[in-house]
Structures are given as C-alpha cells and as structure tokens.
Amino acid sequence: MNKKSFDEKQLVAEILEDFEQRKVERKPFERQWQINANFVVGNQFCTVDNFGNTCNINKDYEWQENQVYNYLATMYESRLSKLARVRPQMTVLPSTNEEKDIKSAKVSKSILKSIEHKLNISRIIAKATKWSELTGTAFYKVVWNSESGRVVGVDDKGNSIYEGDVDISVCPPFEIYPDNIACESIDDCRSIMHARAYHIDVIKQNWGVDVKGEDIDVISCDSVENVGAYNYTSLNTSIIKTTKKNHAIVLEYYERPSAKFKNGRLVIIAGEKLVYYGELPFQNGDDKTRTFPFIRQISQEQNNNFFGTSVVTRIIPLQRAFNATKNRKYEFMNRIAQGILAVEDGSVDTDLLEEEGVKPGKILVYRQGSTPPTFMNSGGVPSDFSNEEDRIMNQMTTLSGLSDLTSAISTYANMSGTALQLLIEQDDAKLTTSAEEIRSAIKTVGKHILRLYKQFVQTVRIGRIIGGDNSEVELFYFNSSDISSEDIVFETENELTETVAQRRSMIFELLNAGLLADENGNINDRMRSKILELLGYGIWEQGQDMATLQRNKAQKENIECLNIDKEPIVEDIDDHNIHIIEHTAFLLTDTLDDTNPKHKIVKEQLLNHIQLHKDKLTQNNLTLV
Questions:
Q1: Residue 42: what pLDDT?
Q2: % residues pLDDT > 90 (the chain)
Q3: Which residues are within 8 A (CB) of 485 and not within 5 positions of it... i.e. 6 or more apart?
Q4: Which helix (H) or strand (E) holds 214?
Q5: 258: how many CB neighbours lie within 10 A of its CB?
Q6: CA 211, 217, 222 angle in degrees (round to 5)?
Q7: What is the pLDDT of residue 225?
Q8: For a surface tag, which of 315, 362, 434, 568 has the fewest beta carbons within 10 Å of its beta carbon?
Q9: Which string of DSSP letters, residue by residue, matches 541-574?
Q10: pLDDT tens figures, 523-544
Q11: How confident is the model at residue 86 (pLDDT cuts 50, 70, 90)?
C-alpha cells in the first residue's frame, strides 16, 4: 500500500474515534470481568461503578459481620486442575497416499512437536485457560517474529539478522475490541483492535517514534482493608484500576480483506502517531488468504455474543448469598455468646456498662429500688442457617460442574467400583464443553503455525524435537515446500474422559491379550520401553536398540552434509547397511534440486560417502542387505 495515498491525520482520527466507540460498547463486559476477578481473589463485598472503578459495599451497622468465605476460588482452581489434563497431542494427516504427501505430513507433525517444546505450549494453554475460566474468553495471538530464532548474519550497520520464528502470546479479553459485540466468532468480525499500554521507552525501541507519555489506567492487583464486626480488620486482594505513568496505548487495527483492500489492512498507532500502515502480513487463512492472527478460546458460549461467559459469573450470586448466610449466622452466635443486657432506664451507668461490658466477676451497681439488669433469652441458633448453607453449597457445586465424592463417602461406601467410575465420568463430562473449546483452539493454533512456516521458511531449516526422559534430541530438516498438509487431528480423545488409571488398565489388558508381543510371544526392548513410557514411568532403559541409534546417526549426517557442506566420515562403529539405506532414501527425496549448485555438491558427497560404506562391507566380507 502507498502511504501517500491517504490522509494520515484523518486515518488516525477515524481509528481513535472508532476505538472510543468500541470501548463504550464493551464497558458492561469489562465491569463483569473485574467483579469476577475480585471474587476469585477474595474481595467479595465489591461492585463496579459506571466509571469502571471498583468500590466496596459498606456495612450498615458497626456490629455487622462482613467476612468472606471464598469457596468460589476453590471451585475455580478445581476446574483449572481438571482442565489442565487437556493437552492433546497433534498429528497431521497426509492429503493423499503418495509418498511425498506422507513425508510432508510427517514433517508438519515434527514442526508442531518442535514448537510445543520450544515455546512451552503447555504453559501458554494454562495461561489462556485461566483467563477463559475467569472472564469467559481468552485469545491466542500467533505471529511471525522476525527477531527470533538463530542469528544467520549481520547487516551493514552491524545489527544481527535472525532467521525468524513463530511467536505465540496470550491476550486477555481486556485487550481485544471487535467491531461488533454481536459477532459469535472471529470469522464474523470485519475488524479487530488489539490495544495494550507500553512505556514510551519501549515504544521508542520497538517502533522508533517518540510519543508523549500519559497516565494510563490499567487493571492490576492491590490490597484493601476488609472491616468485620466491631472493627475487626483483614487485608484482601482486590482487582482495581491503577495508573501507569509515562505510558501510551499502542493500538493495532486489523481489517479483513475486502473489495477495497484485497489483502486487508494493518494499521498500528502509538499514542496518536501512525507507526505502520500496510496489508495484513500473514497468510494464516485457508488457501493462503490473509486474516487475523487471533484464535478465541471460551469457557461457555453466549448466543449472539463475541465474548463467552464463565462459571465464575454464574456462581457469584450464590457466593454472595453464602457469605450473607454465614455472616448472619455468626451475628446470631455473637448475640448468644455476648448476650443482650436489658436495663431499666436510669438504674445503671449505661455509658460505663457499654464501654466495659459485663466481664466475669464484675460488680454491677444499680439504683436501689430499680429492676436489676438481666440478660435476654436469645435462644439457640436456628437450624435454617445450616440448611440454607447446605442448599447454597449444593447449588454452587452443581453450577461449577464439579462434585466432591470424598465429602459424601458414606453415601457411596456400598457402591461397586464400576458404579463409582461411572459417577466420576459423569462428573468430568460436565467439563466437556470447556475442554472441547480448548481442543478446538489448539487445533486452530496448530494450523496457524504451519501456515506461517509455509510462508516464511524459504531455505532449508533444522528443527529439533526433545523426547523421552533421556532428553534425546531428534533433528529434522524442512523448508516451505515440505509443508503441504494442514489436516490436523488429535492422537488422543478428550483427556477428561480417560484417566491415567484407565489408560494403565487398558495397557495391562493389551499385555494379557498378547497384542503387544511379536509372533513368538516375546516383547522386544523397543516395545518394553514404549510400554513403560505409556504407563507414566518414563524410559527406564536409557539405551535404545542399535538399529534406531544407527538410523538416527545416518539422518544427522544427512542434515550436516546439507547445511554444513561437509562430507560425513565413515566410522568402524557404523552399521553400513543401515547407513546406505538412509543415505539412499535421502537422495531419492525431493530435498535436493539438481539445478542448485550447492545441492549438486551435496549429492556428490553423499554418493561418495555411500561408496565408502560399500567398500567397508567388502573389506569385512559382509553382504549388502
């Protein structure tokens, strides 16, 4: 796009005006997210005013109990712990049964495994799940970072040149502004804004412009004083708006491709300055189309709404009712324990009596001829309080999708193991919707990763896969032509429906049935190691079978020959038959191009290397298998 083909000031003004309108439309959701966060951290006597500021609900009387009994946080953490099992292993299906497509699918799978280890995808998913369970929505942002990866050179100014790599970050819903709140998915949006506050020094470093620093309101944690009965105080964490000085909003405006902008638009504004204007940079859509780099993950769907809802939102009214019931109950107990003293007017010094109370051994002097002060009968604590507590707790448990079987062990004491297992499965099934949303988001993230590598990796690149408890490193090579399939599927079913105990039981059943043994009924070393790994005990046998080690060594030699331009050395420890097969298979692939002078040299080196292996076989009177 030609930057001179538009009025820069007018464009900035239009986008900033649109941004202010989107903030107004999203304000009700933002208030609810703040309340959710406050309730989880324990500030449960709070509300949010029309200006988005958090304020506490004051007590009506000094003696009023105002304590928090935070069962909601425990339910939130329990859901996170169960959803933490949702870490599906992705694989890629070949588009056809041809050898080239099968190889491409294998390379794509290796890329996903390499990224999973490199970026610690499990931790990224956990962070996104915390936001989606808290607010109802979280977003993954998958982009290509040109300043990531290995250093491949230096430019004229002495700056390092990097090979670039995929970068994945988690955006809370506070940072995302759709063009229409009624859109039910990212695909329905025409444009999306991503707003985040940066220090002016960071803006100068990243975008090379000087902007005026301002006081920016952001959401952060703070401690607030919670006052209980008779001025008993405690500190609770509160999610409030705080001010960051010398910051400015960096606004990224993403617009979908249209008739006017065939490749869409990306406009970046820092403060009130335009720092970037161009087309959408990433071909991350179907058929190499350009679209938004965001993937949405929700907890529960809301009809005609861009943002999802969370279980926390549903439990908050019950948590308020539970706190009220508990506090009223303890107020009643305070009346019983401290008593309510009835005195005749003018019979005693009421000011002194109110200040000191009626302590044990106190001599109470009252006016002669008057009625002595007496304690009123407050009765016992009504059972309605306990019954109401139980009812509210049961309702909270039902809404959260959780049930604690251990708390009612006497009820299930006479049940069979099968019946208990069915109860556990039914309990986990309540989380299926949230788990499937996580799996769907991860699948889309995988597609974005492969599409970015397809777009930006033009030369041969080495990938690494770390696997096993012995930290074995597997190397593989690829370029953009090796990525042709994006049909991502999961190797496992929903992890919530299959526990570790179930998987182990299934493995033992397969062992007893003899399905894991060879035709002679024996279990080889490779299968034994795999069984131990599936049982969750890692790889006990650190040494692998010799054939696998020889194949790995030959494949590493192929990669080194291609990238380092150095002919491998034939060693006496090599299994020459295996090395000849692996080197020949590499030459038969489409990796080497005869029109490329460097590839011609690599081909000659490998052919010479294969001949040396054959000579070794002849010298040792061995036969090529």
A1: 87
A2: 27
A3: 92, 93, 94, 95, 101, 104, 105, 108
A4: strand 214-227
A5: 12
A6: 135
A7: 47
A8: 362
A9: --SPPHHHHHHHHHHHHHHHHHHT--PPPP-TTS
A10: 876 677 677 767 766 544 444 5
A11: confident
Comparing CA positions, the residue from 378, 371, 343, 377 lying closest to residue 357 is 343
Under the phi-then-psi rule, with left for phi > 0, alpha for psi from -120 to 50, and beta for the rest, what region is 146?
alpha
Gap between the Cα atoms of 225 and 236, Å rounded: 6
Return all residues near 520 (Cβ < 8 A) that are at least 6 apart: none
Between 411 and 393, where is the model more confident?
Answer: 393
Burial of 212 (0-12, 13-18, 19+ CB in 10 A): exposed
pLDDT of residue 238: 53
C-beta separation of 373 from 366 below 8 A: yes
E-strand ranges in 425-544 read 461-467, 472-478, 487-490
Alpha-carbon gap, residue 507 to 513, rounded angstroms: 10
Q: Could you please report the per-residue DSSP string of 566-596?
A: -PPPP-TTS-HHHHHHHHHHHHHSSSS-TTS
Q: What pLDDT shows up at residue 468?
A: 44
- pTM for this entry: 0.76
Main-chain phi, psi angles of 242, to 5 degrees = -125, 170
Looking at the DSSP bridge assignments, the partners of residue 235 are 225
Pairing of strands 233-255, 214-227: antiparallel
* Sign for the pseudo-dihedral over CA of 348, 349, 350, 356: negative
Evaluated on CA atoms 393, 396, 398, 401, the torsion sign reads negative
The answer to whether the beta carbons of residues 321 and 392 sit under 8 Å apart is yes
Q: Which two tokens stand for residue 458?
A: 């033009």
DSSP 59: P
**H-state helical runs in 119-158:** 121-135
Structure-derived torsion over alpha carbons of residues 397, 398, 404, 408, reported in degrees to the nearest 10: 100
Residue 186 has pLDDT above 90, yes or no: yes
Closest CA relative to residue 466, chosen from 529, 539, 558: 539
Amino acid at position 276, single letter: Y
Tell me the average pLDDT of the chain: 80
What would the two tokens of residue 397 be?
A: 């448990």
Confidence of residue 282 (pLDDT cuts 50, 70, 90): very high
pLDDT surpasses 70 at 158: yes
Backbone angles phi, psi at 487, to 5 degrees: -80, 85
Confidence class for position 306, pLDDT limits 50, 70, 90? very high
Which of 162 and 307 is assigned the larger pLDDT?
A: 307
Residues 6+ apart with CB under 8 A from 447: 284, 486, 488
- Our CA dihedral for 168, 171, 176, 181, rounded to 10 degrees, sits at 100
Q: With contact defined as beta carbons under 8 Å apart, do 323 and 44 qualify?
A: yes
Please check the confidence at residue 79 and state whether its pLDDT lies above 70.
yes
Q: Is 21 helix (H, G, I), strand (E, B) or coil?
A: helix
pLDDT tens per residue, range 97-136: 776 777 778 888 888 888 888 888 999 999 999 999 999 9
Our CA angle for 273, 279, 282, nearest 5°, is 115
Q: What is the side-by-side strand order in the sheet with 165-171? A: 165-171, 137-145, 294-298
Residue 196 is which amino acid? R
CB count in 10 Å sphere of residue 520: 5
Asked if residues 323 and 316 have their Cβ atoms less than 8 Å apart, the reply is no
Calculate mean pLDDT across residues 355-366.
Answer: 75
Cβ contacts of 96 within 8 Å, gap of 6 or more: none
